[in-house]
TrEMBL record:
Residue ranges of every copy of the HD/PDEase domain listed in the record: 25-145
Protein name as it appears in the record: Phosphohydrolase
Pfam families named in the record: HD_4
Coiled-coil annotated residue ranges, if any: 184-211
InterPro entries per the UniProt record, alphabetical: HD/PDEase_dom, MESH1
Length: 219
């Protein structure tokens, strides 16, 4: 059952991401946050996990959108929703900008994220995988409609983007071997759906899993 806490998180996400749009499409960024929260709920999220899904990009994008610091935004998440939700948002955060707004380079951020993913908390895996599934589905839809030009939106281009999603699917498969992860069948179904979507991306581009894993971007 979702309570007023979820409604509060929805309003907060809408406010913190108000000026933001999706890469290359101009679609309000809130559509992504709603989609990730919806997927999280469909695949078994409780209210804290669903709230974290709504706020999963707050610490990464919020400082630029709001002019507030990472610490200030995180403090508000803690005060409104508790430390547990804040930790889930921490786990979902790719990288937070420094005071000058800079982040580590793309490859460094992605390698770090991939390295820690198999050991992530079960709730963190759910929020993370819902985010990645939403993104992978969006890329696939745009690829079918626009062709490979869609990859020009992404820092790493076609090779790096495909490799990142293939390696994500591999890491979730590894995490699924843990007993506490295997005890959540809906989470395993989420991992399987991401695997199916990543495989569809590879088929559409005409490359194999082995070829994608061998790309140099994240090797």
């Amino acid at each position: 059952m979702l309570t007023e806490r979820f409604q509060d998180a929805l309003l907060l996400a809408a406010r913190w991401h108000a000026p933001q749009t999706r890469k290359g499409s101009g679609v309000p960024y809130l559509s992504h946050l709603l989609g990730v929260a919806s997927l999280a709920l469909e695949f078994g999220a409780d209210e804290d996990e669903a709230i974290a899904a709504l706020l999963h990009d707050a610490l990464e994008d919020g400082p630029h959108n709001t002019g507030r610091t990472h610490a200030d935004l995180r403090g508000e998440i803690v005060s409104r929703f508790g430390e547990g939700v804040a930790r889930l948002v921490d786990a979902a955060t790719d990288a937070t900008p420094d005071p000058q707004g800079a982040k580590p380079d793309w490859a460094t951020r992605k390698r770090t994220y991939l390295e820690h993913l198999p050991q992530a908390a079960v709730s963190g895996l759910l929020v993370s995988a819902a985010d990645k599934l939403y993104n992978a589905r969006t890329i696939l839809v745009d690829l079918l409609g626009e062709g490979e030009a869609v990859f020009s939106r992404f820092t790493a281009g076609k090779a790096g983007t495909l490799q990142y999603y293939r390696l994500l699917a591999d890491r979730y498969r590894r995490a699924a071997e843990r007993p506490e992860v295997a005890a959540r069948p809906r989470l395993l179904a989420l991992f399987a759906e991401l695997e199916r979507t990543v495989a569809a991306l590879e088929r559409e581009v005409g490359v194999s899993e082995a070829e994608v894993r061998a790309y140099p971007a994240l090797a």
